[in-house]
From TrEMBL:
Basic and acidic residues: compositionally biased ranges: 153-175
GO molecular function: DNA binding; N-methyltransferase activity; site-specific DNA-methyltransferase (adenine-specific) activity
Annotated catalysed reactions: a 2'-deoxyadenosine in DNA + S-adenosyl-L-methionine = an N(6)-methyl-2'-deoxyadenosine in DNA + S-adenosyl-L-homocysteine + H(+)
Domain DNA methylase N-4/N-6: 40-229
Biological process, per Gene Ontology: methylation
Designated gene of the protein: yhdJ
Keywords recorded for this protein, A-Z: Methyltransferase, S-adenosyl-L-methionine, Transferase
Family according to the record: Belongs to the N(4)/N(6)-methyltransferase family.
Region (Disordered): 151-175
Keyword Manganese applies: no
Organism encoding this protein: Pseudodesulfovibrio profundus
Listed name of the protein: site-specific DNA-methyltransferase (adenine-specific)
EC numbers on record: 2.1.1.72
Amino acid sequence: MIDLRKLEHLGVTSSSEDGDIHNNDAFFFLENCPAHRYEAIITDPPYEIGIAGKDWDCKKLRIDVLAYQFHRVLKPSGNVFVFCSDFQFGDWYRELSRYFTKLRKFAWCKTDSVGFNKGMFQESFELGLHVCSEDSYFGTEKRKNYVVSGKTSGKERLMPDPDEKWSTKKGEKSLHPTQKSLEVIESLVTSLSKEGDTIFDPFSGTGTLGVAAKTLGRRFEMVEYGFRYHIAAWDRILGKE
Ligand SMILES: C[S@@+](CC[C@H](N)C(=O)[O-])C[C@H]1O[C@@H](n2cnc3c(N)ncnc32)[C@H](O)[C@@H]1O
């Protein structure tokens, strides 16, 4: 029997009635994606800061191309939300403002931040950007542009499988260094989409967006080129992890 976990599977799709994960390159997928397909895009692309030494976070991200493609594949009354690093925020704002009339910064305020640099404020929130058009859906009473929640930890945090050599790097405790809090993603899904909508995440990592979408009665479409993250996300969506 072929062990799917031990091979690279560019082009493989995991499908269910709740949604799909494509093992693919986000740019290739977007180029081939039909226009006006999604009601919302909620995504957490690479930050370009080499987080935890990961190759995928070191490359130059073509934010201009992503902004164009996000607008193209989004339905006209849809919403886009991107998490980004401090360095990228201006680029995302500038590029998305070519296509969207409404733009608002957003913060995930972490209640349990640790670490201290003498003479500086403690780093305790992550930046995001919400953009949309004049008639876009906004489905919540919550109007503040921040959400307060702890970091992803405890049972929610995915750990590498100790029996799988491929999944464990020495010294690496969690499976994915930037797994987002389910509480945060659920709050974005509720605000930016309706039940039955399809939400897209082209940089899905451990599939937090898919888990939130399924729980809240939305469909998901996700793209991730790291096959071990794809598998972990799929196990998580099926409730196996
Ligand atoms: C910041 S992480 C997303 C983490 C996710 N929000 C979660 O909760 O697990 C970005 C992900 O994008 C993937 N990635 C980077 N470049 C990609 C590309 N060109 N195509 C597809 N996936 C890519 C990386 O492997 C990484 O898992």
